[in-house]
Write a structure and sequence with these properties.
Strand content of chain A: 15-25%
Radius of gyration of chain A: 23 Å
CATH topology of the largest domain in chain A: D-Maltodextrin-Binding Protein, domain 2
Helix content of chain B: over 70%
Number of helices of chain B: 12
Number of domains of chain B: 1
CATH superfamily of chain B: MetI-like
Oligomer: heterodimer
CATH class of chain B: Mainly Alpha
Distance between the termini of chain A: 74 Å
Structural class of chain B: mainly alpha
Number of helices of chain A: 10
CATH architecture of the largest domain in chain A: 3-Layer(aba) Sandwich
Distance between the termini of chain B: 47 Å
Number of strands of chain A: 12
Largest sheet of chain A: 10 strands, mixed
Number of domains of chain A: 2
Largest interface: A-B, 31 and 33 residues
CATH superfamily of the largest domain in chain A: Periplasmic binding protein-like II
Structural class of chain A: alpha/beta
CATH class of the largest domain in chain A: Alpha Beta
Order of helices and strands of chain B: HHEEHHHHHHHHHH
Order of helices and strands of chain A: HEHEHEHEEHEHEHEEEHEHHE
Shape of chain A: globular
Largest sheet of chain B: 2 strands, antiparallel
Number of strands of chain B: 2
């Protein structure tokens, strides 16, 4: 009997110790940087945050994926250090004392099956295809094959970006709404009639990226503005309030050329020289 | 010493009671949470507009939150899976319990256990790579991601539970029943279908209900093969189920938005469906015990 008691007591002590140790790990001394906003920027800002944390021990980086609109509101209300937006600020937002800094550019590639003879579409044709006005590839010079529209789920940053650039908000007649870029690419690769869209960096050889208005999507054409299916990734700050020391350090780091490699590997096109 | 012993006994009883209550607590917590977070959107949208609205466009400038397409898709999809899966599963169970040789039975049972252990994302992946293009080519339709593909995947996924539960029920039929039937001159096949199956019918019914429960709650696999467009269901139509409606939009819905609240309401509707199925299952199991 005493044995059991002893065992139970030691068990409790051990568990208590474990919990104490685990809690201890969570404590940090350094400052914090909080970001809030665009879900499309998750990969880029996540990678940047990670490397910042690695290079500055004790610093905590947080990112709250709420969407561009909520991110802008959060920074205006002082609920976070840096807001993230995947669209330019509106005039009335700038009037609230908000400042935008372009972090990177995001190119969205329009992809088709490699067996599809089409190589080029213009922006207007793309929006007519996605709104269901053009239903067959032969109407745009391709095979006699029904067009199968592949898209992303409501709320996805890529979908939001694609629809706002092509002017097809809420009007796309999707056949499939998939929940990841990988699924879109797999589906387009396996269906000769499919067309989809994906972030430029994630496009693989299994699908063919179309040129838009004669310009192929590459880092260069996104950067010089020639390729039009693109949008900016923007850092939103308050122009009248100073950032905390840590947040300023983070801001300087991600807008410097040092961060370019990380931004490219996360799929966006860096803009700083 | 004696007192102490009793104290220990009571203490350990107490510990077990607490452990048992954890499960009850979880169920209560989830129920209360779902109801509390599911009600506001239904009140805002209106229960009739919500349940019987035919259009879902949660992120549109003029959002519409009608989940009738999802409800119907879930019902059709589950019914389809049962129509395809139950005959196969039931016949397999009859074969395994009555006809199969021991070695064959062991082999098939191993295969069934393996099938039960395959994660649903793998079903989805194989469905996406093989089944969806296969359906597109076989039926000459522009795209294979459809209710039909989801039904096939669900039918395969519910096979293990249907087979296992019906097998247990069939094996529990007393051998005397069958011996008596055989002695009266019935052939073995007549005996199995006229005597063994009726004797095991409540168990088999429980298997079907269990299959329904599994099919209606599945999300991952069908998200990859059903196309997910919020259309009214049609066999080769791209469709969205109740489960996939919640899963596909949850990650991006902003906190506190009507969209997120509406997703909780969908979850609540799904929860009610599953509670109903559980109640039916309990009824069958109780019925069997009483027999």
């Amino acid at each position: 009997m005493q044995n059991i008691m002893k065992k139970m007591i030691s068990f409790i002590i051990i568990s208590a110790l474990t919990i104490v140790t685990m809690v201890g790990c969570g404590k940090t001394q350094g400052g914090t940087v909080s970001t809030d906003g665009s879900t499309s920027m998750e990969k880029v800002i996540g990678a940047l945050g990670e490397s910042f944390e690695e290079n500055n021990s004790g610093v905590t980086f947080t990112y709250n994926p709420t969407g561009s609109g909520s991110g802008i509101t959060a920074v205006a209300e002082g609920r976070c250090d840096i807001g993230l937006s995947s669209r330019n600020l509106k005039e009335e937002e700038k009037a609230q004392g908000l400042k935008e800094t372009i972090l990177a550019l995001d190119g969205i590639a329009v992809i088709v099956n490699p067996d599809n003879p089409i190589n080029d579409l213009d922006l207007e044709t793309i929006s007519r295809i996605y709104t269901g006005e053009i239903k067959n590839w032969k109407d745009v010079g391709g095979n006699d094959l029904e067009i199968v529209l592949i898209g992303r789920e409501a709320g996805s940053g890529t979908r939001d970006g694609f629809e706002s650039i092509t002017g097809t908000e809420d009007a796309c007649k999707y056949r499939q709404e998939l929940t990841s870029t990988g699924d879109v690419i797999t589906t387009v690769a396996s269906n000769p009639g499919a067309v989809g869209y994906a972030s430029l960096a994630s496009v693989k050889e299994t699908v063919k990226a179309l040129s838009v208005g004669g310009i192929m999507p590459t880092e260069e054409t996104v950067k010089d503005g020639g390729y039009v299916v693109q949008r900016p990734f923007i850092l939103v700050t308050k122009s009248d309030t100073k950032l905390s020391v840590t947040a300023q350090k983070f801001f300087d780091y991600i807008t410097s050329s040092e961060a370019n490699e990380i931004i490219s590997s996360a799929g966006a096109v860096p803009v700083s020289q | 010493m004696k007192n102490r012993k009793r104290f220990m006994e009571n203490a350990i009883h107490g510990v077990f009671l607490v452990l048992g209550l954890i499960t009850v607590g979880c169920v209560l917590l989830i129920t209360v949470y779902l109801i509390l977070s599911g009600i506001p959107a239904i009140r805002k949208i209106g229960i009739l507009d919500f349940l019987f609205g035919e259009e879902w466009a949660s992120t549109a400038a003029q959002p519409r939150y009608g989940i009738l397409p999802f409800i119907l898709t879930s019902i059709y999809g589950t019914a389809g899976a049962i129509i395809v899966g139950v005959p196969i599963g039931f016949m397999t169970a009859v074969y395994l319990s009555k006809i199969a040789k021991r070695k064959v039975k062991a082999m098939i049972e191993t295969a069934i256990n393996l099938l039960a252990g395959i994660p649903s994302v793998v079903y989805g992946l194989v469905g996406m790579m093989v089944l969806v293009p296969g359906i597109r080519i076989a039926f000459h339709i522009p795209d294979g991601a459809s209710l039909f593909a989801a039904i096939i995947v669900l039918a395969i996924m519910i096979l293990p539970s249907i087979i296992k539960v019906s097998l247990t029920a069939l094996e529990a039929v007393p051998k005397e029943y069958e011996d008596a039937s055989l002695a009266l001159g019935a052939t073995p096949i007549e005996t199995y279908f006229r005597v063994s199956v009726p004797a095991a019918k409540s168990g088999i019914a429980a298997a079907v209900v269990l299959g329904v429960g599994r099919a209606i709650g599945e999300a991952m696999a069908i998200m990859m093969v059903a196309g997910n467009a919020p259309n009214m269901p049609g066999i080769f139509q791209s469709v969205r189920f109740l489960t996939t409606a919640v899963a596909s939009e949850m990650s991006y819905a902003a906190d506190g938005s009507l969209q997120k609240q509406a997703l909780f309401s969908i979850a609540l509707v799904l929860f009610l469906f599953i509670m109903l199925i559980n109640a039916i299952l309990n009824f069958f199991l109780k019925h069997r015990k009483e027999n």
